[in-house]
């Protein structure tokens, strides 16, 4: 592991000493990118050296989250309740049925035909 740390230290120390483009080299227009463009990579980057270099700096334990959201959604979508006063079918109900009953209990529903 000492060699990886030495490589990282070497790269960090070279930042001030090495010029990005040698003065005698003509610029290649195909290699130049504008500020809005991102460099294209041939394949996925190997991050193992970076992970090994920074693993001592991490002071927390990473906890993986479970990816069971699809199974929970399918169960919730099957739970259809029918509202007592309006007869509407409700899915993914946020308010408890008892609270909904309390809110609608003082409201009197009248058919439109009786108003006309």
TrEMBL record:
Residues 18-46 are annotated as: Disordered. GO terms for biological process: DNA replication initiation. GO terms for molecular function: DNA replication origin binding; single-stranded DNA binding. It comes from the Eukaryota. GO terms for cellular component: nuclear replication fork. It holds the Pfam family OB_MCM10. Residues 84-115 form the MCM10 OB-fold domain. PANTHER family: PROTEIN MCM10 HOMOLOG. This is Protein MCM10-like protein isoform X2. It comes from Cucumis melo var. makuwa. The lineage of its organism: Eukaryota, Viridiplantae, Streptophyta, Embryophyta, Tracheophyta.
